Every structure is written in C-alpha cells, then in structure tokens.
Amino acid sequence: APAAGTAAAGSDEENWGGSLTGRIPLQDLPALPSRGQGFFMEPLCGIFVVGICSMLFVGMVHAIGASKEDLKEEGVEKELSVLPVYLVWAEAGVAALCVLFLLFGGAGVIRRSEKTCYPMPAEVEQRLRTHRSLEGLTNVE
Fold first, then answer.
1. Mean pLDDT (whole number) for 108-131
2. Could you give the C-alpha distances from 37 to 6, 32, 34, 46, 53, in angstroms and in order?
3. Global pTM?
C-alpha cells in the first residue's frame, strides 16, 4: 500500500495531474458540448432582419427624395435633399458592420481560463474527477 500522502498508480490524483484537494487543470477538463442548431439560426435571423430593415429604409428615403426632386428648383434646396440619402446609407453601413462584428468578433463567447472556470463547485469537481456525467446539475440555485 502506498504511504500516506502518496498517490497509488492509476488513481484520480495521478490522472488529473494534481492532488484531490487541488484544482483540475484546464487542459484536463472535458471537451465543451457542440453548438446547438439555434446557435447557427440566430445569425441568419439577424442578417435577415437587418438586411430587410436597411433595404426598406434606404428605399423609402430614395423614393421620398426622388418625388421631391421633381418639385424643386436648382440651388441650395436641391443640395440639401441628398443629405438624407447619404445619412440613411451611412446608417445601413453601420448596421451591417454591427452584424459583422456580432458574427465574427466573438461577441458573447466565454473562453476557458482560470478566471472563468474557478472556483469550481465541489459537486462538479467530484463528478469530473470520477468521470461521471454532469446531467441533473443546475447552474444557479
């Protein structure tokens, strides 16, 4: 039998790279679950909503601007009538950039780190050490 305080060959202590009272190393945590179908549908819905709204707003401003141009004479008033067109295109561009940031900027993604994984609840750590499922555990009580 091993002396007190030493790990037996093949024990949890040896498998997890630390003592039973120490933390489970990040690299030894199980793989993250795969993304659900909703993860891929939400961006498509966002692209659709932003695209439709942008086209609607740009189209309305262009239509209003075109109808007013028929009634206007040359001069300062005509130069000011293109300002809303430029502004609505700028707004549509900002909306598109925001969607791109949400899609590719990693917004809302929490990466594994010492700060995000520890302290770990005792029951979770015990189940991980004994390779049991985490099914049935709640995140917040």
1. 86
2. 47, 15, 10, 15, 25
3. 0.59
